[in-house]
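Sanity check

After download, print the first record. It should look like this:
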Amino acid sequence: MISGSGAKLSGFAFRARLRRSIRRIAGIRTGTTVFLGSVLGAGLLSEWLCSFHAPEWLRFLTREMQAACRDPGTQWMVVACLVVYLVTFQVLSTRVGIPESKAARWFLFGLVGIALLRYAFAYDSAAGSLQFTVLLAGMVFGKAVAFFCLKSKALSSKPEVRHLTLPASAVEAVSARSSSALFFLLLLLATAALWQPEMGTEFKYRGIKRWSGAWSNPNTYGLLMGTGVVLAVGLLWQVSRGAFQVSGETCQEENVASRSTRYLALPLLVAAGSLCSFGLLKSYSRGAWLGTAVGLGFLAYQVLSCQVAGGRCVAWLHRNRIGLATLVLSLAVISFWWFRHTELPVARRVFSVANVNDFSWRNRVTAWSGSLAMLRDHPWIGVGWGQVEKTFADSYRDERLAEAMAVQLNDYFTLANSAGLPALVCFLAYVGFTLTRSVACGVRSPAVGDKFASRVTRHLAHSTVCFAVVILLLIGFWFDGGLFKLALAVVFWPLLELARVSSVATVDLGAPASRRPVAAGWGRAGGTRALPTLSWSAAVLFASALGLSAFHVLLPCLTITNRTLSLARRYSVTPSAIGDFDSIGALPVWQGQQVRTLLEHVELSHYNRDLVNWQVSDEMYREFVLNPVIDPALTNELHWRRNLWEYFYPRIRKEPTTASAAGSVIRQLRERVRVSTATTGEPDFSRAWYGKEVSKQEFQLLCVAALRSVGVPARVNPVGESEFHDGTSWKPVSSP
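Expected structure tokens:
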């Protein structure tokens, strides 16, 4: 019989053993987990915490920390602390014993060293920006998360072999902690998916509000939601198919958790993925869509590679890659030509990447061109942290680009222009060396003498899921930026480090090459021959896509006749603009003109009408906006709309009324050209627009053309003066 004190002691011992077992299996230390989770949450919601919608005490703390980071008197101390933390975590991770590419380590130190020297070289100007501070903070947080996942008593600090062989208990700890980090991140993203607080600026796509969540930009929100989608899909596959896990003193294939926990995890992952998918669609962020598609495609490829039965499928895909690529590309081209005028918002947004009138991608391309010119002039040390936008606006901005902020949308150019091309090379090399060691199936072959020995298991590894998300974010950094935004930095750097850390728990680097499983089908002749049906299908679709493209490209180059007008009306005009096409197509001014000129007036006018913030009646629109003839008594010039629209529309797109838009257009026109009293003969639009000095008559015609190009009804009155309609009456251009 056990006494009361003995029973009590036995109960305490049992609970202590239970707590130790839970901590060992889950790989979690409460204090560290809470701290890292709090930092991740604060980083993700940093923009909301600074807004007026956050609680007063949170906003006070956030702004105090932000003030300390922005103050030139204290920012250098913050940077110094971050550098010390970065070196400390790197040294600790090395002492843990996980092998790491020496090249990757040196490239990381090279990136930090170059960026730090550029920061110190021009501290006064660099202190006005948080770019370098955010970059360092992201690196430190990534190293901290990696060290948290690696820290285990089962890991040797001094491995005796060239490639460390992990015992099963260490594999369990690393895998469990990586899983905890990924699940926690997914939980945060899914929770924030439907949260749409007011963040100030409202973004719209053709009148539809773009969701931005707790962030100031829908592109940031889209990248985070895409991250949630890829994480949910990867973890869902792991849970549904089972993953490597240690149980007691034997290694065996088991589910990630018990059966009941597995059944609970599946619907939670499906719900999280659904929420993030919905948020991703509502963001209307094409960069996030593209990155998510590439990340999911990478996951699908790795799933096939990791399955023994899927190895032959992968080999078949590899053998037929040219035919499949031709097939997919041809289908995309055909879909674009047939559905480019669709009214479905999501499809229209996807196809807008090929819309020559879309300012979103045009501004990016223009900014990239200016960034390359800046990089050509400052290749080695850049222009300094926080000086890219100012330098671009002063010396490299194209006149068609209304705002210089577009130069900040590409993080690769921003890094190169801030700290020099060597810094960009170090960043790309570090990412590349880290990721090349991270692509792996969940494979473990036992080491000699390992009492945890078991047969090899294969599944989708955590490192592969992290790799897919990193690919998504790298694509997003090219189109939308985010490397210097805290909300994305605290996601990118930890996942990059987890991709390396998790790979050690799934691949036994010490196993001989002969014992490492290889995807079935690679290098084998059986089942990998190209199918004749696929080749013929690809050839037919390619010919169809080529013929359809040739038709749509050559038709605008033809001279206007009844036949070409009929073809253009049927195949080249959006259905909602057919009335406008018929209205100006009947004008007698098109004789000898190309179809392109007519289509340009119809498409730009109709496109602009959907974008501006005012409404004009159909009669007023077709007579004084769509009509390309300014004054038949003075000139029959028709090639004026595109140049004027590309210049003026970005500058008036936020104007609420025709009166305010007219005032802005005339003011900018007067700044661009000077009116001369001299007579220059017959009015010439090209000379008036590109010249520095114009006659009074040319200026009046230029005013009417500029106003019509942005959707403001305008005309030349009987006395030869230009005037616009403000919705109620005609007013001279001098009155705005």
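If your output differs, re-run the checksum step. Summary of this record's structure: The radius of gyration is 31 Å.
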